[in-house]
């Protein structure tokens, strides 16, 4: 098929909403990354998402809603703590895993009896959901395992000929996928995937917040995938990514020792002038790094990089989300210097 590039103007949004109602897949902007949107209750539409991405079927999808009353159409029960978290963080980049209603098919929930739900803050995403009149399943709009897309052009590159349309809503403001949390029976909030909503922010609402070990470590064989981004190698460019922890001086020494054709460094702003090998930068603060990391990983491929040494961010605050994406992009290959 020919993938149509649509604007965020009213007539194009109406066209995109009609495509969604009719079971098609549409690239949709959100504040985090672009998503592949389809009717979450339509198994055939959701199958098209998996086919377009080449995504493993046991990897659950997140369902997007545009208003609180739609939560009851997706979740079987909503605990009081979930209501408090929604009041504080929705609309925004927080996904809550809740028991699902029977209307949500197993292909959407990855075979689980729970489903991840969030209310995006991007005005185009919310308009599309409201105009379509259906809850929207929307994983990141990239080929499975490749860096997530943060512009409509990224989506067009990955999905041309595979989906009906892409709505161009501009560059994503957050740049990494939503924080995913599970609400444990004892009232603890467990972070399954870190994002813009940090542990410290959640602690302002929840009595206890913990980090799932899978954030920084590989899942063991046979462990259940409770959230997108937990099990498989993700976010990887074609280049071989190596994450490097340690001082700038030791990082620079390592990079220079390994200088060769096709070897690049991905460093913090201002450090690129101190290396002789080709460099890209991805900001200094956690917020800047989150906004830039996926586009920079894609740019490395465009530049022909074959091996990339990446300066590890501090795994705290929003930096934890960036570190989580990079350790998976590197296939958990980390060098301490």
Automatic annotation (TrEMBL):
Binding-site residues for ATP, renumbered to this chain: 55, 59, 114, 118, 140, 148, 193, 235
Start and end residues of each YrdC-like domain: 10-197
Taxonomy, superkingdom: Bacteria
Keyword Signal appears in the UniProt entry: no
GO cellular component entries: cytoplasm
Gene3D superfamilies for the chain: DHBP synthase, Threonylcarbamoyl-AMP synthase, C-terminal domain
Catalytic activity: L-threonine + hydrogencarbonate + ATP = L-threonylcarbamoyladenylate + diphosphate + H2O
GO biological process, one term: regulation of translational fidelity
Protein family membership: Belongs to the SUA5 family.
NCBIfam families the record matches: L-threonylcarbamoyladenylate synthase
Protein name: Threonylcarbamoyl-AMP synthase
């Amino acid at each position: 098929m020919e993938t149509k590039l649509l604007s965020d103007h009213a007539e194009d949004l109406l066209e995109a909403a009609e495509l969604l109602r009719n079971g098609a897949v549409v690239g949709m902007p959100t504040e985090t990354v672009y998503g592949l949107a389809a009717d979450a209750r339509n198994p055939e539409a959701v199958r098209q998402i998996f086919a377009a991405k080449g995504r493993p079927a046991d990897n659950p999808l997140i369902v997007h809603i545009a208003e609180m009353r739609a939560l009851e159409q997706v979740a079987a029960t909503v605990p009081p703590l979930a209501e408090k978290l929604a009041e504080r963080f929705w609309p925004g980049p927080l996904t809550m895993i809740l028991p699902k209603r029977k209307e949500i098919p197993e292909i959407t929930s990855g075979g689980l009896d729970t489903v991840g739900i969030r209310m995006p803050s991007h005005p185009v995403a919310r308009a599309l959901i409201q105009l379509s009149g259906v809850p929207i399943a929307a994983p990141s709009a990239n080929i499975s395992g490749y860096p997530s897309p943060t512009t409509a052009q990224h989506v067009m590159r990955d999905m041309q000929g595979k989906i009906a349309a892409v709505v161009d809503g501009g560059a994503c403001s957050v740049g990494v996928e939503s924080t995913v949390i599970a609400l444990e029976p004892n009232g603890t909030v467990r972070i399954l995937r870190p994002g813009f909503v940090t542990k410290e922010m959640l602690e302002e609402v929840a009595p206890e917040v913990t980090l799932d070990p899978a954030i920084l470590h590989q899942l063991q064989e046979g462990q259940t995938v409770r959230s997108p981004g937990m099990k498989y190698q993700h976010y990887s460019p074609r280049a071989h990514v190596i994450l490097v922890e340690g001082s700038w001086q030791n990082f620079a020494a390592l990079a220079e020792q390994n200088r060769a054709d096709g070897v690049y460094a991905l460093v913090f702003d201002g450090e690129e002038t101190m290396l002789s090998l080709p460099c890209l930068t991805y900001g200094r603060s956690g917020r800047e790094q989150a906004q830039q990391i996926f586009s920079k990983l894609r740019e490395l491929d465009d530049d022909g990089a074959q091996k990339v040494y990446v300066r590890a961010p501090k795994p705290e605050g929003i930096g934890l989300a960036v570190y989580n994406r990079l350790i998976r992009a590197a296939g958990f290959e980390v060098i301490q210097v």
